[in-house]
Structures are given as structure tokens and as C-alpha cells.
User: Fold this.
Amino acid sequence: AQSVAQPEDQVNVAEGNPLTVKCTYSVSGNPYLFWYVQYPNRGLQFLLKYITGDNLVKGSYGFEAEFNKSQTSFHLKKPSALVSDSALYFCAVRGTTGGFKTIFGAGTRLFVKA
Amino acid sequence: NAGVMQNPRHLVRRRGQEARLRCSPMKGHSHVYWYRQLPEEGLKFMVYLQKENIIDESGMPKERFSAEFPKEGPSILRIQQVVRGDSAAYFCASSPNSQTGGSKAFFGQGTRLTVV
Assistant:
């Protein structure tokens, strides 16, 4: 069965420091992996995706994520956090077998302190 | 507490027909979001609704698409006169209040619309 885990309910980081938001997954076949961000009073916004190719994926707003097949992880990273990065972050996975079904993680709240 | 329920899971429509997608939010949730996912693409925001109100429909196509979230019953995403390009997976999410309240959104399993 497909599943996504975001083990941290909240991540706190100081502005200018690197940030990591963790995501691990379980899926049949090769995964399609996604990160989304949700700002207050807004719907999800797409950040980046991994379909195939380089394990390091670069996305919007300076974010990147590294696909690690052996650890079944897809952690979101940014070298230098901004206060404006404070938001909810969702990881999602879709298997290449079993149809279109996409599973979302529970979300991680990121607080960046000035 | 059941999660967000979407039905049907799969919907096939001929070009020109109407498609109705339903989303029952989690119990106690009064905010609903609709998203569309094209093959190998991420989700794209369509509309954000509260009970009886549309809050943000900036992602909705101007024509043929409409959404509602009545006081009673599920939220409905309605697509009139469907075309092949409407074929996609449509996801719904719900939350108990707005994001400023600190609440997370929970997602349904999606409805796969195929237009033939």
C-alpha cells in the first residue's frame, strides 16, 4: 500500500540557516514525488517534483529536494531560510502502478524566525 | 472519523456531457479546496470554498467550471460540456478552519475523470 510520512509536525529554523523538511514514502513501482506549500488562506502551490533523472531536484523559491531510493526519502531543503518561507509543506507520492492515486503526507509546519 | 470522501472514484463522460464530482469533507471541516492533476504533473489549485461561500476561485477556468459547498451536503465540482482536455484527476481537501487558524488540510483520494 502507498503511504507517505512526514515525521515532524513542526520545524523551527532561524532566518539564514539551512532548512530540511523530511518525507519518507512507500509505493509500488517507481514513485512520482511532489512537494507543495500552503500559505495562509491559500490553496496548495506546487514546489517541485521528481519523476525520473537526477536525484537532486530544484524547484520554486530556491527549494530543492533529494530523492534517495535506498532510504525511500524525498527531503525538502533550502540552503538559507527566509521568514517568508513560513508555511505548511506537504509531501505527496504517486506510484506508477495502480493508477493515478496520490497520497499526501500530513504536512509539516515550518516556522522561520527573524 | 472518516477521512475526506470523494465520489465517484472513476467517472467516464462523453464529450459535451456534464461531470459532477463530489467531495464530503471530514466531520467538522467547513473549508474545502479543489485541485486538478494532469498526468505526470503536480496539483493545480482551482477553488477554495467555505460553507455557502466561494473564497478564492482564481484557479478555475472562466467557462464551464463551477463549484459549490452548500450548507448541507457535499461540495460539488461541476464541469459542463466536457472536452477531452478536462480528463484529469481531481482532488479535494478539507480543513476545519482557515489556514490562519493553523489547521492542516486533509486530502481525498481523488476522482479520475476520463472524457471519451
